[in-house]
Here is the input.
Amino acid sequence: MTAQLIDGNALSRQLRADVARRAAALKARGVTPGLAVVLVGDNPASQVYVRNKVRACEDSGLHSVLEKYDADLSEADLLARVEALNDDPAIHGILVQLPLPRHIDAQKVIEAISPAKDVDGFHVASAGALVTGTPGFWPCTPYGCIRMLESIGYDLRGKHAVVIGRSNIVGKPMALMLLQKNATVTVTHSATPDLAHFTRDADVVVAAVGKRNVLTADMVKPGAVVIDVGMNRDDEGKLCGDVDFEGVKEVAGWITPVPGGVGPMTITMLLVNTLEAAERS
Ligand code: GUN
Here is the structure.
């Protein structure tokens, strides 16, 4: 069997067109959705990420401000900037790019963001809303994975979903979202002794550990849906995911490629969250 591709670029285009339409409707009522992106220091990967986020905002008709600070910015000064953005009526979403320099307590900064503007979904209030199934912002990467499953009309009710990885940004929120969609969820991680035992029984596998070839063809049930959140480099320096794509695509029913899968969906869901923050304001 050859799996069907879930195309994150195509789905992103559709969703971003919808964001642009809704942003235009809000603008006609005098509200331009606004995102503030805060970058501290000169981490090269972070610089690329924030540039892409700001450009995506512009392309969808959202207002965005990029605030760049030197790596020696004090924690107190950063907290003061976050407070000012909390009070700024032109800003509906605030994103502080991680990682932050070591002298700054990242969790403290995240908790300083107003939950109403927490479009990253990293605040404890957002995490609590996800746990309890109450309204709040969902973290962009796992939210994008859910949208990809919805795009193929996949009904998660009663299905066995296996999440590989337990990070606060992907694995844990992913498991909670799948649970909310009525899947039976298993969370596996570095201390799981026999990963294949779980993945072979899975109807859906989400791989989110940041390590190549974590999931190989022999570990996948025929017809399963495989979502690859990984962003790694292979021996030739080419971008690759956590899944052995060439092998697994011969067994799975559906699979997301890397690049062109979950990656573009992360920024798309940031736009969706920012738009929704503006609609709620
Ligand atoms: N660093 C890498 N990914 C992310 C993200 O999604 N949000 C923030 N704030 N920082 C990141």
Notes: The two ends are 48 Å apart (CA to CA). The longest strand covers residues 34-40. The CA atoms of residues 233 and 239 lie 5 Å apart.
